[in-house]
Amino acid sequence: MQESVRILFLCTGNSCRSQMAEGFARALRPELTAFSAGVVARGLDPLAVEVMAEAGVDISGQTSKRLEELSEETFDYVVTLCGHAKEHCPFFPGRTRRVHKGFDDPPELARSAADRAETMQVYRRVRDEIRDWVMGLPGNLDDEAGQA
């Protein structure tokens, strides 16, 4: 039996985008083994939990963690989801391939939102973009790796 592809989703704070990607990968692509981490750990964003629940994916049990907390794990792919994580992504020995697929930062965009409805619209847009990209896994990993 073939081992599943092991993917780490990495962003700055492991609070929103990487959590969404991990949640969608676990829910929509159970043949993959998904993890998420951040350059730092900022805690799970409650609005990310809320919009993921709207999409039928419960990420409330996931935890925000730093990359160092996964030092014993091996990955086939490390997917950076923001420029900061791409710049600070460490070297991974062996067969690990680094892939960059940037998504807007919902908390950052929401700072200029006029109200909660506009804030939620931003979170939902990014959530849906992440879901659509995750649906193309693992095939689109090679597409993104070619562009990195």
Automatic annotation (TrEMBL):
This protein's UniProt keywords: Arsenical resistance
Gene3D superfamilies per the UniProt record, alphabetical: 3.40.50.2300
Residue ranges occupied by any Phosphotyrosine protein phosphatase I domain in the UniProt entry: 5-140
GO biological process entries: response to arsenic-containing substance
InterPro entries named among the record's database cross-references: Ptyr_pPase, Ptyr_pPase_sf
SUPFAM superfamilies, A to Z: Phosphotyrosine protein phosphatases I
Domain of life where this protein originates: Bacteria
Signal peptide start and end residues: none
Entry-linked Pfam families: LMWPc (PF01451)
Name this polypeptide is given: Arsenate reductase
Provenance organism: Paucidesulfovibrio gracilis DSM 16080
